[in-house]
Amino acid sequence: MPWLLGELLKLWALPAWGDADARTVQMVDILVIGTTVVLLLATATVAIGCWIVDVMKGPRRHADAYWVDPAADPIQRGKQPPSSST
Predict the structure, then answer these.
(1) What is the model's pTM?
(2) 53 pLDDT exceeds 90?
């Protein structure tokens, strides 16, 4: 996108201003290159940040099953509590 805007600026805006010397064209090119580099670095920074957050969270873990009183929980009715090994 910055490249397209730079080319449009060089084709239409600079000749309309009347002073389109080589130095002005180089300034537009430098601004386009700088904008492209900044956008690429910003994208890379966000991607690295997302990767770090993903690594720090680790794999998904499910909570350990725990016994619920069947009288208090209608979903658990009919199930027996796990036997204790102690």
Answers:
(1) 0.55
(2) yes
